[in-house]
């Protein structure tokens, strides 16, 4: 969702650029966008990331180098990693067209608080506008929502990623089913981007097809380190989100984290899920900035 782009002390650190010194260029000026992984680690920290995580992120979120931007130290060249100060990555999944969605925004800690994040967002928005896109979306952590609102983004909905734990001694996973449209008797309870599923490696894709109270349930699940991410969940309308989520837990390995991403935080079924014991692993919002033609 992005680090605090312009948070931090306002005092000038050693080597920090003036507000108008940094130069912003397209990521397509770099030899390989995946090289920005080093900058991402400087912004967000090392964490517990598997090898190849950044290239995987670019692929799954459809990042377009021509729409994405990177900020450079004065006098540095685009291909010099030592000169990179921050970025806004922009993805263009066809399922969102004519909207684009950011895949990460951030500025290195010592360069924050000087308007660089605002300039990066404006530059990315301009590139999207020039490409004929009409909206730029982003997902933000709850504490960053005011920051983005001040920069022209309006909240579309509050989101929450719910965390539960598997319960199955003998997991009931199957080969990943083909991606398909919901049937007449199905409702989409969890929905991430279809492009993210298409960009997930075959060995990490799994499915769960089961019944709960004689109602069919189909899930598209990916292995993300030690966790199981439910990218999509189809269930009959009469089956509550809580019942469907608990049915999934009985399919997945006991004790394994199970994540339901980007649920509508204000939706009564989501509130019922959390009241029943699922935890809020992350709260945030989906925001959007309109791009005037």
**CATH homologous superfamily label of the largest domain:** Gcn5-related N-acetyltransferase (GNAT)
Describe the sheet with the most strands: 12 strands, mixed
* SSE order, one letter for each helix or strand: EHHEEEHEHEEHEEEHEHE
Alpha-beta classification? alpha+beta
Report low-confidence residues grouped into runs of 5 or more: 6-19
CATH architecture classification name of the largest domain: 3-Layer(aba) Sandwich
Shape category: elongated
* C-alpha-based Rg, rounded: 20 Å
What would you say this structure looks like, in words?
Mean pLDDT is 91; it is low at 6-19. The chain has 293 residues and is of the alpha+beta class. Strands 1, 2, 3, 4, 5, 6, 7, 8, 9, 10, 11 and 12 form a twelve-stranded mixed beta sheet that branches. The protein folds into two domains: 23-152, Aminopeptidase (3-Layer(aba) Sandwich), CATH 3.40.630.30; 161-284. The chain has helices spanning 37-44, 53-60, 116-130, 145-149, 194-198, 241-249, 268-275, and strands at residues 23-26, 69-72, 84-91, 99-107, 135-141, 154-165, 187-191, 205-212, 215-224, 227-235, 257-264, 279-290. A hairpin with a 7-residue loop joins strand 3 (84-91) and strand 4 (99-107). The longest helix has 15 residues, at 116-130.
């Amino acid at each position: 969702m992005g680090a605090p782009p312009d948070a931090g002390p306002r005092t000038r650190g050693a080597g920090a650029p003036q507000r108008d010194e940094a130069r912003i260029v397209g990521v397509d000026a770099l030899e390989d966008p995946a090289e920005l992984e080093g900058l991402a680690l400087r912004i967000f920290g090392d964490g517990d990331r598997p090898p190849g995580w950044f290239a995987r992120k670019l692929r799954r979120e459809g990042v377009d180098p021509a729409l994405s931007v990177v900020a450079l130290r004065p006098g540095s060249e685009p291909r010099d990693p030592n000169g990179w100060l921050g970025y806004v990555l922009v993805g263009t999944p066809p399922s969102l067209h004519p909207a684009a969605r950011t895949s990460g925004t951030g500025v290195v800690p010592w360069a924050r608080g000087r308007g660089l994040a605002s300039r990066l967002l404006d530059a990315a928005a301009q590139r999207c506008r020039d490409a004929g896109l009409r909206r730029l979306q982003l997902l933000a952590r709850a504490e960053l929502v005011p920051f983005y609102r001040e920069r022209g983004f309006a909240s579309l909905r509050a989101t929450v990623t719910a965390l539960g734990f598997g319960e199955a001694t003998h997991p009931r996973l199957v080969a990943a089913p083909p991606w398909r449209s919901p049937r007449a008797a199905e409702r989409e309870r969890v929905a991430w981007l279809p492009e993210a599923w298409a960009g997930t490696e075959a060995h990490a894709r799994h499915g769960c097809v089961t019944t709960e109270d004689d109602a069919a349930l189909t899930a598209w699940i990916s292995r993300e380190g030690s966790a199981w991410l439910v990218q999509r969940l189809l269930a009959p309308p009469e089956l509550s989100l809580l019942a469907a989520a608990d049915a999934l837990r009985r399919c997945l390995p006991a004790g394994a984290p199970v994540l339901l991403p980007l649920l509508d935080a204000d939706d009564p079924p989501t509130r019922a899920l959390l009241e029943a014991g699922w935890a809020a692993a992350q709260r945030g919002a989906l925001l959007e900035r309109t791009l005037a033609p």
